[in-house]
Every structure is written in C-alpha cells, then in structure tokens.
TrEMBL record:
Keywords: DNA-binding, Transcription, Transcription regulation. It comes from Kribbella orskensis. The keyword Transcription applies. This is TetR family transcriptional regulator. Residues 1-35 form the HTH tetR-type domain. InterPro entries: Homeodomain-like_sf, HTH-type_TetR-like_transc_reg, HTH_TetR, Tet_transcr_reg_TetR-rel_C_sf. It comes from the Bacteria. PROSITE patterns: HTH_TETR_2.
Amino acid sequence: MIASTAGVTRQTVYAHFPSRDALWGAIADQLTAEAVAAFSKLDLETGPAVDALFRLIETSSQVFEQHPIRLYPAAGDQERHEPVVDLLTKIIRRGQTAGEFTRDFPVPWLVKSTTALCHAAAELPPRKASNTLQATLRRLLAVG
C-alpha cells in the first residue's frame, strides 16, 4: 500500500527502511513535523481558550487529512504526541485560569480526554466529526 501510494516498489521502500515499524515510524515523524510546523503559525495565546482549542484541533485535522494514510499511534508512543499535549495543556490551563473551563477536573485528565475524543472523532465522517467533537468538548470543559 505505501509503496504503491509512493509510486515505487516494495524493494525500494525496504532499501531505505529496515522494517515495517521503521517505515511507519518515519511516516509518523514526518506527519508530526508537519503538524508542529502548522501549529507554530497559530495564535493560541489570545482570545477565548475554547477558540484556541478548536483552531488547534482544526489545524491538526487538516494536516492529517492531506495524507492518504491514517496512523493510529501505538500505546506508549507519547513522544510524538508531546507537542500536541503541551499545547493542549497550555490552552486548558489558560481556560481554567480565565474561568472559561471547569476546574472540577485536573488539567492532565482534560488533556487526555480531549485527545481521546479527537481520536474518536477521526472515526466519524468529517462534517459530523467536527460538530460532534465541538459539542462534546464544550460540555466536557464547561464551567458549572
């Protein structure tokens, strides 16, 4: 699948990558780098925290929709998630400090919940995913 998508033979792919895991790792690294580059262009420090959160999620979705290969990171593949986790942590903390987001749950819990909901939304049709994810996150993060 990867070789045909890239327009090369399997032998060519495996000449550059010693194993399937190494190949998938390189693909994940490239997608992570593209996402981080896109995130660096976002203003996540101003305006309502919920708007910043949705800008981050939308940008992440756009990066991954540009590629025909869907990656589902293995459990323990936290290093590639760190840039997103760091940004989510800052946004959620900012939202709690400003009184926009609930303080009923700790920041790490809200970050993990947000990440899990984003992964679940990836299983839905794009239009439904966005609406469902936003509605769910608004309820999760709501004050009161």
